[in-house]
Task: structure prediction
Amino acid sequence: MTHVTPSRRAVIRTAAWSVPAVTVAAAAPAFAASPPVAAPDMSTTVASTPTRGTPASTLHFAAFDMINTGTADTAGIVMTFSNSAGIITGLTGTYFGATVDLDGFSGITVTGLDTNSATATFPPNFFGKNATPTTPMSTTVRINVETASTAATTISVTTVAANIPSGPGSTSTFNVPA
Result:
């Protein structure tokens, strides 16, 4: 087996290419940190205490005030309703005095029906505008949570911006008597 010794020129050329690579690698961590991503913050959403409707298994939420205190606009709203006493069979809303099924209405999607947790996803600008940091979106949203029971229950409502589904958001919990 023959042993090859590199020339001085090859050693210098390799060293010349190595120095910039080491310099860039050493400088990269300083540039790797990016500025924080702007995020909407729906943590100040307030819902009214639900009341029983007709039939008594329907729970009426008269209003939700959605206020964005974050640094970016929302791109839609996601509301999750959880029922401690049983399943949620439907989500309806009041639109110009008429009760409408939320699923499919004006781009709304509803998932999780016939479980104890149902989610309504409202598209961007559904409420006439998105919740912006400079202009709080406060709107009257009337939502009915249809359940399979008239028993006393605890209803939790979680609201987040659709573009940041992991939050920050708000959760309101209500004890509803039988």
About this structure: The first strand starts at residue 46 and ends at 47. The CA atoms of residues 76 and 126 lie 7 Å apart. The radius of gyration is 27 Å.
